[in-house]
Amino acid sequence: MSDRDEFVEGGGAVTNLTTPPEPEVLLRSRHSVPAVSLQSSDSHRESSSGAGNLTDRKKIEESLIQHLSMDLLSCDVKLSLFSGAAKSFRHDSVLSPFPPAFLDDTGSKDIKGVHDALLAIPPLNRLQRQLEQNSCQLSDQQLNLLSWVFNGGQSQLSLRTMTKVEGIETLRRVGVKPGAQISLPTHAFEVRTISTDSWMSNTTEENSFYGFHGSRLDNWFSILHNGLQQHRAKTSLFGEGIYLSSELGVSLNFISRGIGWDGSMLGSSLSCLAVARIKNHPSVKIHCADATRGRVEGSEGGNIPENYILVRDNQLIHIRYLFVYGNETGLAVQSVLYRNRFSNWIYNNRLLVLLLGYGGLLLLVGMSSSPWFRRLLRKLGMLQ
């Protein structure tokens, strides 16, 4: 469900994009990478010594190498979501927070400078090689932008790329039923911010449940940094609040494909959907037999529909996972894990099964015209 925009009709998954390399190992927490940045002020740079500037640049380059080495795909997605917000015609509201390196002393936003910086950044695997070989030509301001995006800004946003097996297990845990006829995400990410630990410390499986939330691509940079916010909601048919769904298929109707970063390994076009943990509180409206639990006073649409969730307090919800719809590989191919072992074997050996079936058909046709086979059938009483 979308909290920021009108319903998007016909929103679907993005397919046929470049396949990124699958992460080989689980990646460490964001805290293992020190957050460093260059000073963006021109006056500061002018007053600093040349050796000091070189030291600052070296530190930020080393930090970027660490980020890219640990989780290249999550860095790519962060930059894609940032780019999607920066390119949006609504960038004044959706590019929040705004990169400090592109703010002047009066607080004016240099959005053109942000666009130029994004055009200058090469694909991240190439950037990693350049940094390791000390051949990176990006300016201090452009490096500062990358450092700010990868470090997660003030919210310390961290995305951890989940393996395919982890992604499938997460789908099961959040309520996607095996064999569901829906588009599965191509990549899944665990989401953490500076408030995750404290929020989760007061949350258990017994007093919470999961909900899916879909939105436009250009909204996700702000959503992940600032959380889902009730005051940003535009959909209020059943009351004001944050709209989610207990069914993945329902929320898929509210995502829309958008243009992210041109250098992304996922391709420049993608869409996203979040999985949020919701505290089971009376102010969270759900479809149930209890009329007071399923209705908001003054609701134009009546009771909350089945599979809908309406959260009316920002503190009762926290995003835990981000599903990205990029190319056709990734988790979508792994939907076979939702089948039983026999179906799984058939799926993995479907060409062999087809050939065996064709061979069996030819054998039956040939044997049906064989005299000795017909005599055998008569002896067995299977043929008159």
CATH architecture group name of the largest domain: Alpha-Beta Complex
Average pLDDT, all residues: 80
The radius of gyration over CA amounts to: 26 Å
**Spatial separation of the terminal alpha carbons:** 65 Å
Overall CATH class of the largest domain: Alpha Beta
Specify the number of helices: 15
Low-confidence stretches: 3-32, 39-50, 329-340
Number of domains: 3
Report the major sheet: 6 strands, antiparallel
CATH third-level topology of the largest domain: Phosphoenolpyruvate Carboxykinase, domain 3
> What is the molecular shape?
flat
How much β-strand is present in the residues? 5-15%
* H/E element sequence: HHHHHHHEHEHEHEHEEEEEHHHH
Which structural class fits the helix and strand makeup? alpha+beta
| Share in helix | 25-40%
- Total strand count, please? 9
Explained architecture:
With 384 residues, the protein is of the alpha+beta class. The chain folds into 3 domains: 30-154, no CATH class; 158-338, Phosphoenolpyruvate Carboxykinase, domain 3 (Alpha-Beta Complex), CATH 3.90.228; 349-379. The protein contains 15 helices and 9 strands. The chain has helices at residues 42-47, 50-70, 72-87, 91-94, 111-120, 124-132, 140-151, 164-173, 196-201, 220-226, 248-251, 330-333, 341-348, 350-368, 371-379, and strands at residues 158-161, 187-192, 208-214, 242-245, 258-259, 269-279, 285-286, 308-311, 317-325. The strands form 2 sheets. Strands 1, 2, 3, 5, 6 and 9 form a 6-stranded antiparallel β-sheet that branches. A 3-stranded antiparallel β-sheet has the order 4-8-7. The radius of gyration is 26 Å and the shape is flat.
